[in-house]
Amino acid sequence: MSEQEEKIYCIIVAAGSGRRFGSQLPKQFCDLGGRPVLMTTIERMHQALNEPSEIFLVLSDGFVDYWSELCTRYGFDSPRIVIGGDTRWQSVRNALDLIPPGKSPVFVHDGARPLVDAGVVSRLLEALSGGVHGALPVMPVADSLRQWLADGSSIAVDRSAYCAVQTPQLFTADILKQAYEMPYSPLMTDDASVVEMCGYGDIALVDGSEYTLKITRKIDLDTVACMLGCDHKS
Ligand code: CTP
Ligand code: MG
Fold first, then answer.
1. Rounded to whole angstroms, what are the CA distances from 191 to 53, 54, 182, 217, 224?
2. What's the gap in Å between 88 CA and the centre of ligand 2?
3. Confidence band for 229, pLDDT divided at 50, 70 and 90
4. Residue bearing the CA closest to ligand 1, atom 10
5. Ligand 1: which residue has its CA nearest to atom 1?
């Protein structure tokens, strides 16, 4: 294995506008414990990778200068920046152009999930080393579930047949790069769906973490801040 192939890569996508969060400032730049959310995400990912690794940070064009000001203000060392696109899919795709082909493990992580869990990262690496096409952290669904039917009615479904999917998700560079060559479909809401649609269906599921929730709405940021205040050790 060459030196280049031994490196672990991580793409942190943070080019979204945070429509559901509903503030003018995209959620990844909002304050969490005295600095922007994204700095906690990057720092915790660095700590969790704990091996020769390179992180790419995907930002939208309009926020690159702002991020650079934030890094100066907080004395933060930014990873290499990639310009994102209109969809998460496009943002990941842009970053993949910078990752060399080969068998290197590539994590893809949402910038809006600041509390990266080192245990999840090591479970994913272990699963991928078993030769699967990809590895994902999942959580049991807490609420009861119903399925919408075509006539507008709904029916209860078996909750135990489903799980909720988190990030980071892990693949080898070659598989991820090949999968992202396919045309975009709105069903591609995460990286596993892209890889699966390309025919790579051998995906390992590992236990996720309650701490790695995605900040989607305002209440989620309050929850994450509370978790940080609880001195969560990841
Ligand atoms: N993301 C991205 N590029 C996009 C859209 C999303 O890099 N064009 C990133 C977000 O910044 C976020 C992650 O993908 O870290 C997960 O997306 P989501 O939670 O949906 O964030 P937003 O798209 O920003 O929020 P919303 O869907 O509410 O607009
Ligand atoms: Mg979105």
1. 20, 19, 12, 22, 24
2. 7
3. confident
4. 16
5. 16
